[in-house]
Design a protein that fits this description.
The complex is a heterodimer of chains A (253) and B (251). By secondary structure, chain A is mainly alpha-helical. In chain A, 82% of the residues lie in helices and 0% in strands. Chain A contains ten helices and no strands. In chain A, helix 3 packs across helix 6 and helix 7 packs across helix 8. The radius of gyration of chain A is 23 Å and the shape is flat. Chain A starts with 7 loop residues before the first helix and ends with a helix. With 251 residues, chain B is an alpha/beta fold. Chain B has nine helices and ten strands. Chain B is globular and about 55 Å long. The chains are: A mainly alpha (253), B alpha/beta (251). The interface between A and B is medium-sized, with 18 and 21 residues.
Chain lengths: 253, 251
C-alpha cells in the first residue's frame, strides 16, 4: 500500500512537479511538431474519418474475439499443464515455449502463408483472430497457472474435506482469488492483445493500424494519420486499466 | 449416533522426503472405541497428523486397512471418499478459511454447495452454529480481520455446521497464543457435551488429561500405549510413556 501524505507543503510540491512536467512535455511536443515545418492538415484527415472508424471497429472485433478464445484456450492449456498425463504436459509446454520464444510477426506470417493456406483457410479475419488467440493463450495460460499455484495446498484440502467437487473448488475457491491476484497481469495481457492486433495489418486485415497506413499513403499526412491511431488505442486500453483497478479495489481483502 | 469405532490393521505408509523414502508406519494395528473425545498424543514427528489425515482420507496408505464404524475406507475410490468426507468435520492446524469470503459465508458454503440447502436455511443454520460457538458477532468479517482464536472458532463452526458423524481436529491450538489456546480448549471441552465424537491430535497434555476419555500414544509410527485417559495419566505402563509424561508435567 502506498501511503499518501496530504500535508499542504507536500500538496504544493505535487502541484509544482505535475505542472512543470506537463509544461515540459507539451513544449517538447510542439517543438518536435514545429520542427517538421509542415502545417497540420486535420481537415484532410477528417475526410477519412470513416476509414478510421471502420478500422477501429474491426480492431475491437478482432481483439474481443481473440480475448474470448484466448481465455478459453489458455484455460485448456493450464489443464494440460497440470494434467496427470505427461504427454499433455510436454505438448502444452512445447506450445508455450514455441509461442513465447518467437516474434508475433513471424507467427502471423507463418500461420497465414503456411498453415492457413495449407488447410485452405482464406478468410483473413478468421486467420487473424486464430493466430492472435493462439499467441495470447500461451501467455495467459502461464499467468493463470501462476495464479492457481499461488493458492496454498491447505485451501485445496479444505475444499476437498468439505466435500466440494473439483469444479466447485475452481469456481468458488480458486478462481475468485486468482482473478483478484492476477487482475493487473491479466489487464496488461489484454492491453497487449489489443495493441498486438495492429501487426495483423501485415497480412492485409483492414484493422485500425492498416486504416491509418492507408490514410497516410493517400494523404501524406503522417503525423495527422498516426495521432488518431494512438488516441484510438488509448480509448480501448484506458477503460480496461480503470476497470481493472476498480475491480481490484472491490475485491480487495 | 453414539460411540465411534476405529480399527486399523497392518497399516504401512512411507513418504518421499529429501529424495529418500522414509517409512512412517510399518504394520500399525490398533482398535479403539470412544464416545466423546479421543486424544492422539506423542512427540513431534511420531505420525499423529499423518494418522489423522489417513483417517480423513486425505492420505492413502501403502498397505493395510482402516475400518470406521464397521465400514472399510475405500482409499482408491474418489467418489466413495467424497461421500465419506461429506460426513466428517476436519479442522486443520492453520485455519484454512477461504480468505475471500466472510466468516458467515465460510460457514454457509458447505451447506449450500455440498448439502444443497437453500441459502436462507443455510444462513440460519450457520448463524445458529456461530452463535453457539460465540463467534456470530464476527459474522461479516473476513478471515484476515479475525484473531487466530476467532478464526479457529469459525473453522470449527464450518466443520460442525453440517452435523458430521465425527470431528477431527489436527492440533487446533498449535498456531495460537496462550490466551486463545485456553479459549479454544474450553470450547472443545464444551463440545464434548454434544453428540459428535471428537478425535484430536494435541500437544496439550493438561487438556488431554481433563477432556479426553480415550488416549492413543504414538511413537515412531506405532502405538506405545492406549486406554482410558485416567489410567493413562495416573498409571502409565510403558517406561517411555512414563518418561514422556514426567517430562511434560515437569513444570
Amino acid at each position: 500500500m502506498i501511503r499518501t501524505n496530504n500535508s499542504p507543503s507536500i500538496l504544493s510540491l505535487n502541484i509544482f512537479i505535475f505542472t512543470g512536467l506537463s509544461l515540459l512535455s507539451f513544449s517538447f511536443f510542439f517543438f518536435v511538431a514545429g520542427s517538421t515545418h509542415t502545417a497540420f492538415q486535420w481537415e484532410t484527415i477528417w475526410h477519412y474519418r470513416r476509414v478510421f472508424w471502420q478500422g477501429w471497429v474491426e480492431t475491437i472485433l478482432i481483439a474481443t474475439a481473440a480475448l474470448f478464445f484466448s481465455i478459453l484456450l489458455g484455460s485448456l492449456i493450464v489443464m494440460a499443464r497440470r494434467s496427470v498425463f505427461w504427454c499433455l504436459r510436454i505438448l502444452s509446454l512445447t506450445f508455450i515455449e514455441l509461442i513465447r520464444g518467437t516474434p508475433l510477426l513471424t507467427q502471423i506470417l507463418f500461420f497465414f502463408y503456411v498453415i492457413a493456406h495449407g488447410i485452405g483457410l482464406e478468410n483473413r479475419l478468421i486467420a487473424g483472430i486464430a493466430i492472435l488467440s493462439l499467441f495470447s493463450s500461451a501467455y495467459l495460460s502461464e499467468i493463470i497457472r501462476g495464479g492457481i499455484e499461488m493458492i496454498p495446498l491447505a485451501q485445496w484440502e479444505s475444499a476437498k474435506i468439505l466435500g466440494l467437487t473439483r469444479f466447485q473448488t475452481y469456481r468458488y475457491v480458486v478462481l475468485p482469488q486468482v482473478l483478484r491476484h492476477l487482475s493487473p497481469a491479466l489487464t496488461g495481457q489484454f492491453a497487449s492483445l489489443i495493441k498486438d492486433s495492429s501487426l495483423l495489418s501485415i497480412i492485409g486485415i483492414k484493422e485500425f493500424t492498416m486504416a491509418a497506413q492507408q490514410v497516410n499513403a493517400t494523404t501524406y499526412c503522417t503525423l495527422e494519420s498516426y495521432f488518431p491511431l494512438a488516441c484510438g488505442y488509448l480509448l480501448l486500453t484506458l477503460p480496461l486499466s480503470i476497470g481493472s483497478r476498480r475491480l481490484e479495489k472491490k475485491w480487495a481483502l | 449416533m453414539g460411540a465411534m469405532k476405529i480399527s486399523v490393521s497392518h497399516l504401512k505408509k512411507s513418504f518421499l522426503a529429501d529424495h529418500r523414502q522414509t517409512e512412517l508406519f510399518n504394520d500399525l494395528s490398533f482398535s479403539v472405541e470412544f464416545a466423546h473425545v479421543l486424544a492422539l498424543i506423542g512427540r513431534s514427528g511420531s505420525g499423529k497428523t499423518t494418522l489423522l489425515r489417513l483417517l480423513a482420507g486425505l492420505e492413502c496408505p501403502d498397505e493395510g486397512e482402516v475400518i470406521i464404524d464397521e465400514e472399510p475406507l475405500q482409499f482408491h475410490s474418489t467418489k466413495w471418499l467424497q461421500h465419506y468426507q461429506k460426513k466428517l468435520g476436519f479442522v486443520f492446524q492453520q485455519q484454512n478459511l477461504f480468505p475471500h469470503y466472510t466468516a458467515l459465508e465460510n460457514v454457509t458454503l458447505p451447506l449450500t454447495l455440498v448439502h444443497h440447502e437453500k441459502l436462507s436455511t443455510a444462513q440460519e443454520k450457520a448463524a445458529a452454529m456461530m452463535e453457539r460457538l460465540k463467534i456470530f458477532q464476527h459474522a461479516v468479517k473476513k478471515p484476515h480481520q479475525l484473531s487466530g482464536g476467532e478464526a479457529q472458532r469459525v473453522a470449527i463452526a464450518r466443520a460442525l455446521v453440517t452435523e458430521p458423524r465425527f470431528l477431527l481436529l489436527d492440533e487446533p491450538t498449535a498456531s495460537l497464543d496462550v490466551e486463545m489456546k485456553v479459549e479454544i480448549l474450553d470450547l472443545i471441552a464444551e463440545l464434548k457435551m454434544m453428540e459428535t465424537p471428537i478425535l484430536l491430535v494435541t500437544h496439550e497434555m493438561g487438556f488431554a488429561k481433563k477432556a479426553a476419555d480415550q488416549i492413543l500414544f504414538l511413537e515412531q509410527g506405532s502405538i506405545l500405549e492406549q486406554g482410558e485417559a485416567s489410567s493413562f495419566f495416573n498409571d502409565p505402563q510403558h517406561p517411555r510413556v512414563k518418561k514422556f509424561l514426567s517430562t511434560v508435567f515437569a513444570y
